[in-house]
Fold:
Amino acid sequence: MSEHERRTEERSAQGPAAHKETGDDRARQHAAQENGAQVSTGIETAGVPDAAIPELVIISGMSGAGRSTAAKCLEDLGWFVVDNLPPALIPTMVELGARSQGNVARIAVVVDVRGRRFFDNLRESLADLEAKNVTRRIVFLESSDEALVRRFESVRRPHPLQGDGRIVDGIAAERELLRELRGDADLVIDTSSLNVHELRAKMDAQFAGEEEPELRATVMSFGFKYGLPVDADLVADMRFLPNPHWVPELRPYTGLNEEVAAYVFNQPGAKEFLDRYAELLRLIAAGYRREGKRYVTIAIGCTGGKHRSVAMSEKLAARLAAEGVETVVVHRDMGRE
Structure:
């Protein structure tokens, strides 16, 4: 019997299921090849203990907002990173990691509109992961239209969705496609005013720890005249307090200065606000933990983001840290005037 006849006889003995599996494998391989990814397929997680299922992070967001930088940061932290993977293959990637005997314990997948028609399968893949009890987090990179246009023009490349239109047309189309995914994100990072090093610092702050904390908080001061932070979960307004800007001897300094901070907290309502807002945050944090939300961005604003918001952000961050919440402080607009 020839080798070809022997293989034909073996396939016939295995029945239709074997032929169907082969067809599915080919379809998945074709999808991967068409989108530039190299991934093996066809492995099931049956019999694999839950502890062996790798941790999964999905990186997505606006083109030009820093997805590649975020992915490179996770790669430097020891994550297995796959760029431009068709969403339909994400469960397969997790299955492969589960079969690696712990060698691939953390997987990061970059998913974006470059996948075109494959991107439509993302919702189904997320539902599949949830059904398999896979721990997954979505990191969404956001940026303003102005910043994105500036970045595309600086590299003289078209937006992947602009077609025959303008860059702003592609950005608008992409925002609409990603609207639901942004709403599902566990962590939204606005990179409008961040450079590469600052973005890496934010990713390090969230993923570099040896143990996963219950809740991580970013306390951000900002100036209302420069716009609201788009990645803020909670916003508080400090403009009810007198502005140190109108005190000549305090004007040159920031809220990091002890005299400025003392001036702010000697005003009626400042200490009361800190106490009551910290109490409110304890209530909110407990709810976030129950809902599985691991990250929260608390924005504290004043007119220019220099005095009142900076002083309050520092005190609030210290209060959260004292209560066991891992906290990062960012002063978005300090020094901008």
Notes: Confidence is low (pLDDT under 50) at residues 1-47.
